[in-house]
Structure formats: structure tokens, C-alpha cells
UniProtKB/TrEMBL annotation:
Pfam families recorded: Htt_N-HEAT_1
Protein name: Huntingtin
One GO cellular component, as annotated: cytoplasm
Length: 453
């Protein structure tokens, strides 16, 4: 009996007895199916047989991997690993598609976890071509959003996402749209106010990884944080859930990445700082709430560098009012209008009232100072150019007489010699050089005076 026949008989037995047989009875058949699929997948000449058999084998093995019995799940996981690893060399793209098609909101959490943990493994599954990887991202992330919203086993789903979402984002995040990422974040945040700490930590980690691949998502998350926590609330689950989100975001991500894109400025940092201080000073009896807020504040202070540190240590701190927070930047990826306006309008001096469209430059100015920027430029029509036909050229301009210039120069030299003879000691070399310099500057000044007459 060849490998293909063994795999077909093992699959037929598993389908017929998957609900009735015990774990030890399924172990032999599942092991045989896994080994045979691994052998077929590693052979290039068996591609057609492997592909046909895989469509029927994957659902059966996933059923075993999601069984209520831990012994049966162990058998199914081992056989599924053999089948996937066997086709890694020649059929990784096809295996990835089949596993993604098995992810559905009607399946149980263990089924979904078994599928998620075996997709996007390595880089060999990538198939070059327009729209092929995009189609996978377009299918997978809306499914995940729907699963998170509708599942009744949120703890298992969050655990599966916490361990697999970083790998999925590294592979598919650049092929997703902002709306798909935003919908997944909204689905996760809808469960953040739970009383289960494991779910809160898992959701916080997932949101932090989403923000690392979509920086503008931070503005939406911070808006939700302030909507839930200000005006102040006394619900411990709400406080711990949202402060856990903030802590995870700044634990995993560097603040410089957000500040460079103008998504998290000093004002946002100070508002979070004052929010933490308020809830720490609040006279609450739940020490778990205070511990969560203190942990969040510790992370914020550990990330304080550069302008954030200077803002905290400033002797004249910036006034912060959480009641006046209207900073809703939104989830966007369009070019800001300020990047276009700043290249067209120079800034006004600080003493003058500034227009709303004017922006200030940062860094050293080149090709002139700020005074040159504020000097109004003149057009060619504003310049007074004198031509032979212009009225200014018709008036006679007095040309300086050379004899008069020589006479004036001699008189000045005579006055200089009379004053110089009164000095006791004079260095002749220094005197000669000084005379030359004096004559040069005097002649230039006299000539310029004559021209302006």
C-alpha cells in the first residue's frame, strides 16, 4: 500500500469515527494521516494528490484539535503540525488559504485558535502578484472583527490573538486598510471593561500591537480613554481596563514614533499625566485600581525624554485643563494642510498677532534671517530705473571736478601733518600705513558724497 492509499484510508476512518471513537483509537489513524500528508507535501510530483487530500483532511484535523478531550486535542495538534510542515516547501500558499477559509465566527474558539496559530508562518507562503496578499488580508481581518464581537468564548479568542496577532500584523498589516484595523480595535475595546484581568491584559497587548502598525490609531484610543475616564468615574473595571490600555501602548511602542508624526505631543502627555495623578489622589478604597494607575504612571514617567521631560520639570509648567480637551484628531492618513502652508507663508515676529494659517519654522534659517522673510518683496514695476528718456536723466548732474578733489585732499593731509607733528614719538612705518588707509577711506567717502549731490 503506497502513501496516498494509507492517507486516504486513515482519513476515511477518522471521518467515520470522529464522534464515537476514543482518543487511543484515533491516535493511530491521526498519526498515520499526518505522516502521510507530510510525505506527500514534501514531494513536488505529488502536488495534485496533496492538494486534493488537504481540502478534506484539514477540517477533520481541526475538529480533532478542537475536541473537548485534552487527549484528542493533543493527537489532532500533532497530526495537523505534520501536515502543515510537510507542505511548507511547495504548498505553503495553498495551505495558508485553506486554513484561513476555516476561520469563521460559527466555529468554536479552539478551532479558530488552531487555525490562527498555523497561518502566516515564515515568509515562504507569500505569493507574488497583484492583489493576492491583499485578498488574504481583506478576508482575514474582517473575520477576526466579527469573531471578537460575536464570540461567547472571549477569553480563548483573546489568548489566541495575543499570541498570534503580532505575527499576522508583520505579514499582512501593510496590505490592510485603516478601516479594517480600526474595526478590529473597536471590537477589542468593546470588551476592555471586563472584570477578568487576563482578558484586559490580552486586549491591551493586542491594541498596543495594532498601534505599532497603525500610528494614527493612537489618537482614537486616547479619545476613547478620556471619554471613559473624564468626567471621573468610580467603576473599578472601567478605570483598570482603560489605564491598562495606556500602559500597554507605551510599554510596547516608543513615544518618539508618535511624536515624529505629530500624533502625541507634549500637551497629550501632560493630560495623561494629570489624569493619572487625579485617580491616584482620589480617595478610593480599591487598592487594585490604584495599583493599576500607578503602574500606568510609572510607564509614562519611564518614557519621559526630550520635550516630555522638559515639560514635566519646567519651573513654569503649562496649564492643563482636562475639561477643555477637544483634541479629537481622528483616524486619518491624509496629508495635513500645515505641511503645504508652511512652505508658502513665513512666520510673523512674536510681537505681532499671528494668523491661524501661519506656521513657524524650526531649525536654522538659511539664505537670510527672519527680518528678510518679513520684508515685503517688490516687483519690477516698483523699481525706479532711470533711462535717457526719463525726467530724472534730463536734469543736469554736476560732475565733480578733479582739481577741487585734489585741493580738498591736500588740505586734509596738511591738517593731519600739523596735528601729527605735536606727538613726541611716531613710528614712521606705522604712520605710512595709517596714511594710506586714511587716504583710501577718505577718498571713498568723498567720492560717495559727490555722487549723491
Amino acid at each position: 500500500m503506497n502513501v496516498l492509499e494509507k492517507a486516504e484510508k486513515a482519513l476515511e476512518y477518522l471521518k467515520a469515527n470522529e464522534n464515537s471513537a476514543k482518543g487511543h483509537e484515533l491516535q493511530a489513524a491521526a498519526g498515520t494521516l499526518g505522516r502521510c500528508l507530510g510525505a506527500l507535501g514534501s514531494r513536488a510530483n505529488c502536488a495534485r494528490h496533496y492538494a486534493n487530500l488537504l481540502h478534506s483532511a484539514i477540517p477533520t484535523l481541526l475538529f480533532l484539535a478542537s475536541n473537548d478531550s485534552a487527549e484528542v486535542r493533543l493527537v489532532g495538534d500533532e497530526a495537523l503540525n505534520r501536515a502543515v510542515v510537510g507542505g511548507f516547501a511547495f504548498h505553503s500558499y495553498k495551505t495558508n488559504i485553506i486554513l484561513q477559509n476555516q476561520i469563521d465566527h460559527t466555529r468554536n474558539a479552539r478551532w479558530i485558535r488552531a487555525s490562527l496559530s498555523r497561518i502566516c508562518l515564515g515568509e515562504c507562503w507569500l505569493r507574488p502578484g497583484v492583489g493576492k496578499i491583499r485578498s488574504q488580508a481583506q478576508t482575514l481581518f474582517p473575520k477576526l472583527s466579527q469573531i471578537v464581537r460575536n464570540t461567547k468564548e472571549i477569553q480563548l479568542i483573546v489568548e489566541a490573538l495575543e499570541s498570534n496577532l503580532p505575527r499576522l500584523l508583520n505579514a499582512l498589516a501593510e496590505y490592510t486598510t485603516d478601516e479594517e484595523i480600526s474595526e478590529l480595535s473597536k471590537a477589542l475595546l468593546s470588551h476592555v471593561e471586563t472584570t477578568d484581568p487576563a482578558i484586559r491584559r490580552g486586549i491591551s497587548t493586542c491594541i498596543a500591537h495594532l498601534c505599532s502598525h497603525r500610528e494614527p490609531l493612537l489618537t482614537n484610543v486616547l479619545s476613547e480613554v478620556f471619554d471613559k475616564l473624564w468626567p471621573p468615574t468610580s467603576e473599578g473595571a472601567v478605570i483598570m481596563g482603560w489605564f491598562c490600555i495606556v500602559k500597554a501602548i507605551f510599554q510596547i511602542n516608543d513615544t518618539s514614533k508618535f511624536s515624529e508624526n505629530d500624533l502625541f505631543n507634549v500637551q497629550d502627555y501632560l493630560e495623561l499625566y494629570h489624569l493619572c495623578i487625579y485617580y491616584i489622589e482620589d480617595s478610593t478604597t480599591d487598592h487594585n485600581v490604584q495599583n493599576c494607575v500607578i503602574e500606568c504612571l510609572t510607564v509614562l514617567l519611564s518614557r519621559a525624554s526630550g520635550e516630555y521631560r522638559r515639560a514635566l520639570l519646567d519651573h513654569h509648567p503649562t496649564a492643563v485643563s482636562l475639561d477643555d480637551r477637544f483634541n479629537r484628531k481622528g483616524h486619518r492618513r491624509n496629508i495635513s494642510s500645515t505641511s503645504v502652508i508652511s512652505s508658502r507663508f513665513p512666520p510673523s515676529p512674536p510681537s505681532e498677532p499671528r494668523d491661524a494659517l501661519e506656521l513657524s519654522f524650526t531649525g536654522a534659517l538659511q539664505l537670510g534671517s527672519i527680518l528678510h522673510l518679513n520684508t515685503p518683496s517688490l516687483s519690477v514695476e516698483d523699481l525706479t530705473i532711470q533711462t535717457p528718456d526719463s525726467p530724472a536723466s534730463e536734469t543736469e548732474i554736476e560732475i565733480p571736478n578733479t582739481e577741487q578733489l585734489s585741493k580738498d585732499l591736500s588740505e586734509k593731509l596738511q591738517e593731519y601733518e600739523e596735528c601729527d607733528s605735536k606727538e613726541d614719538v611716531v613710528d614712521t612705518a606705522h604712520l605710512d600705513s595709517f596714511k594710506v588707509k586714511y587716504l583710501y577711506f577718505f577718498f571713498i567717502a568723498l567720492w560717495s558724497d559727490c555722487l549723491t549731490m
